[in-house]
Amino acid sequence: AQSVTQLGSHVSVSEGALVLLRCNYSSSVPPYLFWYVQYPNQGLQLLLKYTSAATLVKGINGFEAEFKKSETSFHLTKPSAHMSDAAEYFCALRNTGNQFYFGTGTSLTVIP
Amino acid sequence: SQTIHQWPATLVQPVGSPLSLECTVEGTSNPNLYWYRQAAGRGLQLLFYSVGIGQISSEVPQNLSASRPQDRQFILSSKKLLLSDSGFYLCALRRASGGTDTQYFGPGTRLTVL
Fold first, then answer.
1. Do the chains contact at B110 and A102, CB–CB below 8 Å?
2. Residue A42 to residues A16, A37, A105, B90: CA-CA distances in angstroms?
3. With a cut of 70, which residues of chain A have pLDDT below it?
4. Which residues pair with A73 in a beta bridge?
5. In this complex, do A105 and B43 lie within 8 Å of one another by their Cβ atoms?
6. Minimal Cα–Cα distance from A28 to chain B, Å?
């Protein structure tokens, strides 16, 4: 069975501090993994994706994520938080089928 | 590149009334299309997906239905809305991009059932 777990439904960081949003997955086959960002009352925007080409994936807005098979993790990081990073973040998984499996989301608050 | 339109952007409906939400896409043909619902403070729930005209797969039994009358049109409907149908409805398409199929989302429709 495939699933995605996001640890921490709410994360708060100070402006300029490191952002770390956690995602663990469960998959019976090598997965494709994604991070999306959602601003209020908008659709989801793709931040980055892992396709097995490289374990460290760089995305838009300075975000990156590292695929760690041994830990079944795909955590999202950004070295320095900006106020505009405040949003909801979703981790997602796709295997070989038609479906995508989404985590329940992590709301990021950036404190000035 | 493809564009996803959703109409309307917001909707307030009384309990028991019908519903029709529309999703249309541009810039691609024969897309796989998806309807998700996002309830307040919760993640995404896959409702339906479609791999082609007239082909609908339902993921969650409920009072909602979906139809795909045209290649680039995906409609979400209900005959009688429930309070629990309130939420943010997102249409998405699946497209091959950069080594894997990726989902791209429309702007969403905010539905409030009173």
1. no
2. 25, 10, 14, 9
3. 98
4. A24, A68
5. yes
6. 18
